[in-house]
Design goal:
With about 650 residues, the chain is mainly β. It folds into three domains: about 10-50, no CATH class; about 60-265 and about 275-525, 7 Propeller (Methylamine Dehydrogenase, Chain H); about 535-655, Immunoglobulin-like. The protein has ten helices and 45 strands. Strands 8, 9, 10, 11, 12, 16 and 17 form a seven-stranded mixed β-sheet that branches. Strand 30 and strand 31 (about 495) form a beta hairpin. Helix 1 (about 10-25) crosses helix 2 (about 30-35) and helix 1 crosses helix 3. The longest helix is centred in the first third of the chain and has 15 residues, at about 10-25. The radius of gyration is 27 Å and the shape is globular. The chain binds (dicuprio-$l^{3}-sulfanyl)-sulfanyl-copper (RUQ) and dinuclear copper ion. The site of (dicuprio-$l^{3}-sulfanyl)-sulfanyl-copper has 10 residues, from strand 23 and strand 27. Dinuclear copper ion (CUA) binds next to loops.
Amino acid sequence: MNRSKPMTAVVLVLTLTLVAMSCSGGGSEVDSIAKERGLSQEDIENAVSTYTPSGEHDPYIMISSGGHGGQLFVIGVPSMRLLRSVGVFTPEPWQGWGYGGEASAAVLDAGNVEGKEVRWGDTHHPALSETKGEYDGQMVFINDKANARMAVVDLRDFETKQIVKNPLAINDHGGAFVTPDTEWVLEGGTYATPLPWSSYAPISEYQSQYRGMITFWKFDREARRIIPEQSFAMELPPYWQDLCDAGKLESEGWVFCNSFNTEMATGGIEQGNPPFEAGVSENDMDYLHAINLKKAAEVAQTQAQDVNGFKVLPLSASIQEGLLYFMPEPKSPHGADVTPKGDFIVVAGKLDPHVTIYSFEKIQAAIEKGTDEKDQFGVPVLDFDATKEAQVELGLGPLHTQFDNEGHAYTSLFLDSAVARWSLGGDYHDEGWELENSVPVQYNIGHISTPEGDTVSPDGQYVVALNKWSIDRFFPTGPLLPQNFQLIDNGVSEGQEEDMRVMYDMPIGNGEPHSVQIIKADKLDPFEIYPEVGWDPGTMAVNPNAAKAGEERIERNGNNVEIWSTAIRSHFNPEHVQVQQGDNVTWHITNLEQSQDATHGFSLPGYNIQLSLEPGEAETIRFVADKPGIFTWYCSEFCSALHLEMMGYFMVQPPA
Ligand code: RUQ
Ligand code: CUA
């Protein structure tokens, strides 16, 4: 790439200023620092493009999955500073998530799998809530690929409020995706099993007994919760339905999902069968699914059947009612991304150097015209050429596509370890469907993100590459290395198109951040402190039974002991709690603080209890005092100069 080309206007001005400073004697320090550190002119430009002075905030916030760490990360862009993690499927002690507090226990327990406690997840694709196809900054949804669960996180306090277990599936992959007004949250199953997975069927009966599915979780905006009773799933052929995207604007009401394994390979190399990796890649074409969700939601009211307590629309009903159509898609497809106006769907083929662009208008025309072609389950198959708008050759291993505000698409190329920028046709860009520029990334890129890049009005300037390998980029932390976010300047400003360039590497060493979304920071409006003292983050309301200032006490009723405690710099009240071994303890603790960031911890050693009480927050813990001894509890958050003094004695007396 041409490294001497001018950067965006801002960078150019800054660079010129620096250069001017360095030439004018007094500013030569910049030069000498750069020289000393071995920095090139481009390094300096990248530095001034990403440097965020102390106390300044980033214009964008990136919400990242934490992969099989089971959490979310919140990261500033362009500084690429990690702001916090959010405990979701996995307990996390700093946040007191899953260490004794009743609110987090209730959320985590709701994610148990048929009664089995599962305390980790593989968070995959975060989806920010949308209003009219724009991120609205209210919620984020994230799926757990490992156990087919969906979590709901409230962006007022960045805490997980709900986990629902999919009653049909044991894995998912195609989630989370939201419809333009967040009425529905999508979760596609991928690996087919019997429906539900807990009803056994031998794998020799794969074609007759195993099925795919896509679940449409109904989201109640008022309650800020998923309503399982109003949700439904669509039974699908046992192809592996993969990633989806919701239609928008002209395609609103429709959903598009790619699939693979239309071969219906069942693996079994130990029996001499081709391994999955070969078996599922034999066909040249798989099927892009087009689903009329609006109509399906109506039909589900009357034709859904009960499967494991969940509404499922039988495949026969979907065919009969015209809810489901297939289109051939080449080759090991991955990603189905709807363009900002909702007019095209971009599908990448992992083993095809092209992206294939389908036209929503042409799909509708083909449905209108009708087709005699069907797959072996009777699903109508629309003609490839009749629905295809264009194909663009980008490079090897295209995966995911995002968009900008100047009619470009950006696609990750896994095998090439590169990001391709290409122009959209239609009325997006004069050049039409054409590859413009590629930039190498380090290494093995998976997902890609641009600011608000999958909404109806994407921003521009940045691309973030999520690289699976980092190899030589950072100090090697043993055989397990961090992954690498790379911040890229998209090279586009005010109609000018330059080369893209990698500006910054951000190692991320506490999870596999599978996918991200980037929202304008000013759309978020988080609480500074909880609105009222005694606030329960589980219900997002005051808990009437929360401990109050001046009403701290210990009540005993038989062997039930109930404690109302408060915390304020730098003491708990009470400081002595005396119980008998075997007592049932219910302990309410309220943080009375009203200043921002005055968080207190509550750590009760030996009982596996650790709370993080943010200002105003009230929590309840319940446990049996089954271990005798003297337990020194303390505030685990360094809250004041006398923080070490913020402690108490929990005294458990054994029977005489
Ligand atoms: S898929 S790296 Cu698991 Cu999100 Cu394409
Ligand atoms: Cu409160 Cu440390």
